[in-house]
Design a protein that fits this description.
With 270 residues, this protein is of the alpha/beta class. The protein has nine helices and eleven strands. The longest helix is centred in the middle third of the chain and has 17 residues.
Length: 270
């Protein structure tokens, strides 16, 4: 039995994680917390997601009942604070937060010298299969196609492009030995001139309640291939996060992602 704590319990992903933790065999919801002043503080974790009383009261602090793995889908600053606590106390952490800058990613990498961390912009099994397919497609097509990454999310998502879209671009760029920082095109406006062959374009939509949609377009002369993932429920991210948490129990230190969890990087899957 693995004991998990959920950070950001009142958020969209927090609710999905609470629901999944309470329903998944082999997982116990040990603790859940929100920021001080949240209306969720003091409420029962099961009642707040509509599954009945769970006996776990949402707290306003990370410290609480003992647990094995913290699952964090919050904000970059909150995630780093939670990471610092986990590093100090020797707890493993699964991070699904996106929007980290280079300095923040370096801080996470340094913490991985002391604790086990799974960091992934998208915990969906399907999305991570897409990452593998993108590697195959990019290698096969090489420089003979134009590559565009398209993503759409709900109107309240604050970072753009999404962490998943950026990771898709990184996977393609690495396969083609390109530098995404220099080859990525994130804004087009006015007279842009002809497209550079080696550029990797990004397009973003923010509208309504779209859970998450990502497509990568490989467009050549006479044919076009699209690799697409569409999420209809946040439950898929919660299920992936719990799978990552179970897998991470076997790792005392190190920085991993969902490709490791699924065995795509030649590590053992759960």
């Amino acid at each position: 039995m693995i004991r998990v704590t959920v950070a950001g319990a009142a958020g969209r992903m927090g609710h999905a994680l609470l629901t999944a933790s309470l329903a998944t065999d082999g997982v116990t919801l040990s603790h859940a917390f929100e920021h001080p002043g949240s209306d969720a503080v003091g409420q029962d974790a099961g009642e707040i997601v509509g599954v009945g009383r769970a006996g776990v009261e949402i707290s306003d602090a990370i410290a609480g009942p003992e647990f094995d793995v913290l699952i964090d889908f919050t904000t970059p600053s909150a995630s780093l604070n939670n990471l610092a606590w986990c590093r100090e106390t020797g707890h493993r952490i699964v991070i699904g937060t996106t929007g980290f800058d280079a300095q923040q990613k370096e801080a996470i990498a340094q913490a991985a010298g002391d604790i086990g961390i799974v960091l992934a912009p998208n915990m969906s099994i399907g999305v991570n299969v897409c990452f593998k397919l993108l590697q195959v497609a990019a290698t096969a097509f090489g420089d003979e196609v134009d590559i565009e990454v398209l993503e759409a999310h709900h109107r309240n998502k604050v970072d753009a492009p999404s962490g998943t879209a950026l990771r898709m671009g990184e996977v393609v760029a690495k396969a083609l030995d390109r530098d995404l920082d220099s080859e990525g095109v994130f804004v087009r406006h006015g007279h842009t001139g002809a497209r550079e062959r080696k550029s990797i374009g990004f397009a973003t939509v923010r509208a309504g309640d779209i859970v998450g949609e990502h497509s990568v377009l490989f467009a050549g002369t006479g044919e076009r291939v699209e690799i697409t993932h569409k999420a209809s429920s946040r439950a898929i991210y919660a299920a992936g996060a719990l799978r990552a948490a179970r897998w991470l129990i076997g790792k005392s230190v190190g920085l991993f992602d969902m490709q490791d969890v699924l065995g795509f990087n030649n590590n053992d899957s759960d």
